[in-house]
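Q: I'm teaching a short session on how sequence maps to structure, and I want students to see two examples side by side rather than one. Could you give me a first protein with its sequence written out and its structure tokens following it? Keep the formatting plain so it prints cleanly on a handout.
A: Of course. Example one:
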Amino acid sequence: MLSATARNRANTITVEATEAGLPVAVRIDRRELRYGAESLAAEVTRLCEHAAAAAAARKRVLLARAGVPADVLDRLGLPNEACSHDIAPATWMQRA
């Protein structure tokens, strides 16, 4: 099973997730706890989604190299690498 890693902008939360979005490793800097459980959970979930998209795009590349036709990859719903980067990074920082 493929996995990929995503980090927040501050590099204080790192999530490794499978192509299905299941986290296999989560690292959280203690400073992130000040934002509360709801915000932290939302950020971890967002990073899982980002990592899942990157892992799925990597799977598409590997299957394409193995000779799987593009139309089959499309029907499988595997994104291309460009799609995996379309998820905009979020930040908790606000303008003062």
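Q: Perfect. Now a second example for contrast.
A: Example two:
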Amino acid sequence: MSHIINHRLNQFSWAVAAFLLLPLLFTKGMFFDGLTYAAIARNLDEGLGTFWAPHYTPYIHPTFYEHPPFSFGLHSVFYRLFGDQAWVDRIYPYTLYGLSILMLRRIWVLFIPAGHRAWIPQLLWTVTPTVLWVHQNNMLEAPLNAAVLAVVWLLIEGTFKRNYFWSALAGIAFFVAVGIKGPVGLFPIVTLPLLAVFFPEHRKAAFISLLTMVVVFSSLFSYFYIYQPDFEKFFDGYLNRQLLPTLTGNREHSGSALLSILEISKQLVIPVAVLIILSLRRKAWYTLRKETIFFFLIALSGTLPFLFMDRQHHYYFMPAMVFWMLGFAMLFEQNAWPWAIQRKRWVKRITLMNLSLWLVAIALTLYYSKSPSRDRHTIKALTEISQEFPGAHIQVSQLENEWKLAAIGARYSKIYFSNAQQELYLASDEEEGPIGYSLIMEYPKAKIRLYKKATP
């Protein structure tokens, strides 16, 4: 009966993911960073820009040096397969969610013989708020999380099995992780030193595995830097325009260590609450396992560096969350209750719940398929403008204050905004009409108006 219950709970973890993710599948509208990345990937598929010189708009990052291009390249493959559809921007991160879950479950099996209980970390990670938000909004942390999990899984697999081919693959995955978001993807390198400390029987194998990964990563980086001029040019641009200014505090200042600690605490509310409830039920605290400490320390290595930066956002901490949840899950798993429920009626209850979640998820997906989930009025207004003026270049008063508008226009309408004088001018309702222009379109719900240069 215990295995049947866990089988149903494994199905339940996927049903919860469907309920939380599927309803937004066919909707438009995302956080503007996600729209930006989608526009760059779509441009790449259409031949605007190249892999090592990604293109955003003619006026904003004509060559995009803000992040390495690996995610944009992978995303562009989805456009090549499915066409320029809005739902591709959901399918891409949702696919990465599924890959992340498969690797998370494989890591679990390497440490916990009870593989049928892998639903515990999966469910904990799925309901973590920032994890949902990242995958719903096409953020770079979605592919970064998958790459980081791949590195950790392959390193542990290669070490435990003494098969260093896995470790070589980890070197490739490590190169991809760094190629998605730069130094943010470096923290998995602590995996094998920590493994050697907590599992001394694997110490020698861990050293060989780490050496193999570093050699493969270094070889790949050296090859591209020496023999690929476009890579060298991009790397120098990324280093000098984005990375060094960010590390020296000369870019955007946002957030604080205190706010970040509060945000991390909010993400950990659910596992901490579960721990308290199970401890009360058990009438004793759980024993801290070395596996839990191992994963907590990996999570800390992906969390602490951001607390010393001038630029902090809640989604920066998302790739570390999977290791927090693995640590908590391995803590919970040591107790038989409630994973070994022996009541037949629970099988029926969970089965019914799974079916209900899937039916509701499908119904909501169909219901929301005709409506943008956010910024609907702006999306509708810019779509109408693009139908009247395809590929328009439009002037705004202060482009630096219109990043979201620029992202929506670039992704959904192929409209490009500029500070330079253009034939068309877009103004907010609160802004006075420009001199020498005539009002031609007005969108009260979007709170914008379109003007055209008057004919002399």
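Q: What should students look for in example two?
A: Point them to this: The two ends are 84 Å apart (CA to CA). Also worth mentioning: Strands lie at 49-50, 53-54, 393-395, 416-418, 424-428, 437-443, 448-453.
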